[in-house]
Design a protein that fits this description.
This protein has 399 residues and is an alpha+beta fold. Helix content is 24%, strand content 23%. It contains nine helices and 15 strands. It has helices at 23-29, 58-65, 114-119, 230-243, 266-279, 283-294, 312-322, 352-364, 377-388, and strands spanning 36-38, 71-78, 81-86, 102-107, 131-139, 154-168, 191-195, 200-203, 208-225, 324-326, 332-335, 338-341, 344-346, 366-367, 392-394. The strands form three sheets. Strands 1, 2, 3, 4, 5, 6, 7, 8 and 9 form a nine-stranded antiparallel β-sheet that branches. It is globular, with a radius of gyration of 26 Å. The two termini are 16 Å apart. The structure holds succinic acid and cobalt (II) ion. Succinic acid (SIN) is lined by residues 103, 137, 144-145, 150, 154, 209, 211, 220, 222.
Length: 399
């Protein structure tokens, strides 16, 4: 089990899993623009003696399918058509990986397994605010979810076995009727590749694709992205803003007598309209609300609070020895000097070294162990309540 060489690359560093491009070049040439196939992007996934294997095994993924904290779906195809069921699944109801025409997909594996969160570091040259999850599928021969289109970018990494990917940039968007998932009615591939363990295919949004397992034990990892839908975002920001406003009684001491009571006085209607504009948030308030929303954890995320919490002194000693990391499900972002964690704005004193340390935590998702230097007390005090909430944890990978 190795993740050798997988790290958060610098924007100008040539990266093997981007085919030798730098993240800057990748973003300019491919992001939201055109597909990219990289053979042997992750050589350590090859499951060959001396090469290693992916940092998460098929057995670990199948175990998540039986866990009610993970979101899983099973999709199979038979003469009766497509069928989809939602997990958790009893272990005995999960078919053998050599049985044909079935697949399970587990979403948000990165919020469950630290190895998956660490793997995402390879893609953290893209802002965390856009990164969604690592979804993992396991399939038997012929298994897949049919030809479809996603509205987000995706990196598809073949982690085990072989999968055939067919893609088309021009396609008829009509979907099959009476099917529990979105499958294109007709699909003609323009390109077609067999991906083996370690290969990567990047697809921008709106490229139709079909991935079909070729042979047994096919495991594919999908690094997915997100951006809140604009109406949902507007709705959330507006209702939050209204909750924070206090109402005022109407007053119009300037109102005059009228001979035409059926007519609304212009001044009355305009004064009432002005009240609406007084309720509007400023652009800065809206931007902060957007930033907060972007830091919200994925919907099904659970945070485990420590069952026997350490005292502040013990917390500081252990943090120094083991280092700290964000809990897998935590989202910690910084915007315009504000620190936002899991949908909350954290109040942070104007202490330069504390702010620098928090920026590092937001970028690296961890604070390294340092046996020679204790965490500064301002940082300890800031982090201790987050540890009690289960939002940050000791970094066991440092053990
Ligand atoms: C899969 O892993 O089978 C599906 C991934 C995708 O098509 O987005
Ligand atoms: Co897809």
């Amino acid at each position: 089990m190795t993740t050798a060489g997988i790290h958060r690359p610098l924007a100008n560093e040539p990266v093997s899993w981007l085919g030798g491009m730098t993240p800057n070049q990748f973003m300019r040439r491919h992001w939201q623009k055109k597909p990219l196939l990289v053979r042997n992007a992750f050589p350590s996934f090859q499951s060959k003696p001396g090469k290693g294997s992916p940092p998460i095994s098929i057995d670990q993924v199948l175990a998540l399918c039986s866990d009610d904290r993970a979101e899983s779906r099973m999709i199979d195809q038979s003469a009766k058509g497509w069928r989809m069921r939602h997990g958790p699944f009893l272990p005995k109801s999960i078919p053998s990986t050599s049985k044909p025409n079935w697949t399970v997909l587990v979403q948000q594996v990165n919020t469950q397994l630290a190895a998956a969160d660490r793997f995402l570091d390879a893609f953290r040259f893209i802002p965390e605010a856009r990164l969604d999850d690592l979804m993992i599928s396991v399939a038997g021969p012929g298994g897949g979810i049919g030809a479809h289109v996603d509205s987000y970018d995706v990196f598809l990494i073949q982690a085990h076995g072989v999968r055939r990917w067919e893609i088309a940039q021009k396609f008829d968007p009509t979907l099959l009727d009476d099917v529990p998932l979105k499958v294109l009615e007709s699909f003609e591939a323009e390109d077609d590749w067999l991906l083996e363990a370690g290969d990567l295919l990047y697809l921008p949004p709106n490229v139709a694709h079909r991935g079909t397992a070729v042979g047994p034990a096919c495991m594919t990892w999908s690094v997915g992205f997100r951006a809140p839908n604009r109406l949902a975002l507007a709705d959330a920001i507006w209702s939050n803003h209204l909750d924070g406003l206090t109402d005022q009684d109407w007053s119009d001491p300037w109102l005059g007598a009228t001979d035409q009571p059926g007519e609304i006085p212009d001044r009355l209607v305009m004064a009432m309209a002005d009240q609406f504009f007084q309720c509007l948030p400023s652009r800065q308030e809206v931007a902060l609300a957007v930033a907060k929303t972007l830091s919200e954890p994925a919907p099904a995320s659970l945070f485990e609070t420590p069952s026997r919490p350490d005292t502040p002194a013990r917390f500081a000693a252990k943090a120094q020895k083991r280092g700290l990391r964000l809990a897998c499900a935590s989202r910690f972002l910084e915007w315009d000097g504000e620190f936002l964690m899991n949908g909350e704005q954290l109040s942070c004193p104007a202490n330069r070294s504390l702010r620098t340390a928090l920026k590092t935590l937001a970028n690296q998702r961890r604070i390294a162990a340092n046996p020679r230097r204790a965490l500064p007390s301002a940082l300890q005090n800031f982090l201790y309540p987050l540890y009690l909430a289960g939002w940050i944890v000791y970094d066991s990978s440092a053990d």
